[in-house]
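Q: Protein A?
A:
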Amino acid sequence: MSKFNELLTVLGESNGEYPETMLDDLMSAYDFDIGIFTQQIETLEAGSAELNSQIAALKQHNYDMLMAAAASGTGEPEGEPEGDPDEDIAIDGLFEEEDN
């Protein structure tokens, strides 16, 4: 970091303003190549697009499976549930042991 501050001191004027070419000078001093970052961004964006397409395909497959299960009737329980649906059960009643 001191090298960076030293370079700013050399480039800076006494009133704190810097020349218009300061960014270019800093980039050349540190061999800053924006092309490397552009390539990395493009690679990551391509990977992201591929993953998004895989996610969309999996969602479609899942939806198709749900629709097929609903159409075949395997998703619904068969028969009537046991017991009276109007019967009120208290919480304590769920934990009581039945006498046999």
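Q: Protein B?
A:
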Amino acid sequence: MTLITCKIKLYSLNLQTHNSQTYHTHMKRAIVERNIVVVLFILVLVIFSFAQRDSKQLARLYTATNAVKAKLASVPPAERLPVD
């Protein structure tokens, strides 16, 4: 083998190793990005479920408050308890 042939084989071996390392780096990055997306998606689902629950509670409270106000408005002033 000549010196040029040895250098070419060494260069191609180094290039293959570099390509393999680059591939693994890209794959690791893709897996990390996918995991981040999954965690963010789950976080959004949890936040929206809490928001929906709180929204239902507020709607129930608002309806109950309006019902009490309507009930109080229907009582004649003479029958209302004095508020001190």
